[in-house]
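The following record pairs a protein chain with its ligand, QL4.
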Amino acid sequence: KNWISFSHMSVDRSIFPFDSWLACEHTALKRSQLELNDDSSRFPQGIYSVRQTISRFLSVTRGVKCFPEQIVLGGGTQFLFYILRQLFDESTLYAMENPGYRRIYELLKMEQMRLKTIILDHKGISINLLRKTNPNVVYVTPSHQFPSGVVMPISRRIQLLNWAAESENRYIIEDDYDSEFKYQTDTIPSLQGLDSCGRVIYFGTFSKSLLPGLRLSYMILPQHLLKKYREKCSFIMSTSNALGQLTVQQFIDSGAYRKHIKHMKQVYIERQKKLIKHLKNRFGSLMTMHGANAGLHFTAAFDTRRTIDEIAHRAKSCKLELYNLKPYCLDGSYLYSKPAFILGFANLPLDKIDEGVDRLYYSIYQ
Ligand SMILES: Cc1ncc(COP(=O)(O)O)c(/C=N/[C@@H](CCC(=O)O)COc2ccccc2)c1O
C-alpha cells in the first residue's frame, strides 16, 4: 500500500497551475532581458518592480503599509533573519514562542545569541511572561501560530504593539507565515499595518501559497532599520534569483495568484472539514483539537497510554507520515500532557482521508 501523509511541510502540487506559471515564466524571460543579465549587485534587495508588486498586494491582502524600498527579498526566511540579525548588537536579547519555529531557534543558538523562549496562552504569546522576560526582539507568528495554530486576536496584537512602543530598543518580528488561509475568522490585519512606531519587522514567504522549492521570501524593514541595513549589509548580493522573482511578479500582476489562492482555499476547506468529521467520529472525546481556524494544519492531542515514540513507530509501520510536537518544544521540555501531533491536510487527497484516519487509529489505539 502507498504512504498517506499528514505532513504540514508540503503543498499539493496537483492543484498548482503549472500552465499559467509556465506562461508567466515565458513572459518574464522575454520581457526582462536587462534584469536577467545582471548579477543583482545593482539591486541587492531584489528587483524594484517585483518589490512594487509585492508591496501593492500586501497592502490589499494584509493591510501592510510599506514602500518598495523597505522590502528585502531573499532565498528563504532563515537567510533573511540571518541578515536582520546583523543589524542588532551582541547584547540583544531575543525571545521566541514555545512551542515555536525550531529553524530560527537553531539559527540564534548557532550564533550564540542571547535567547529566551516564552510559552503561549489561548491568545498566543503570553504578554505577562513577555514583560517578565523583557527581550529586545520578540519573534511571533500571529496569523496561525506555528505549530500550535493559535490565531492571535486583535486585542493581543494591540497589547504586543503597546509593549514594543513603551521602550526604545524593542522590536517585534511578525512572521506572517500561513496568513493566506483563514477559515471561520475574517482576515485580521497584520501587526505591521497597525504599527505606528516603526517597531514591526514583517516577514512573508511564497512557500505555502506557491511552491516551497521556489525559495522566495521577503522581509519589510522599518525606515531606521532600512538605513542600518543599507550602511551595513547592502554589499551582500540578493539570494533570490531574478527569474523566480520576475515570474512571481507576472503571476501576481496577471491575477493568476489571487485565483490560485481562492482555488487552494476551496480545496483545503473541503479537505479539512471532511478530515475533522472523520476524526471526531473515530476518536470522539479521546481527542482534543487546536488551531483549526486557519492554515493548512491543526494539532490534536490524544488520551492514550502509548508514548509518542511508540505511536511514531506504529505510524511508520503502516505508512502514515505523521509529525508530533516534540521537535517544536524548543527548550527540550515537552509542553503537553498527552501525545500531540500536527495534522496537515495540504497533501491529503479527499479519497485518502478515510484510510488516513484508520491508520492513525491503528497507530494510537489498536
Ligand atoms: C514559522 C515559519 N515561518 C516561515 C516558514 C517558511 O520558510 P521559508 O520557506 O524559508 O520562507 C516556515 C516553514 N515551515 C516549514 C515546516 C516547518 C518545519 O520547518 O518543520 C515548511 O513549511 C511548508 C513549506 C511548504 C508548504 C507547506 C509548509 C515556518 O514554519
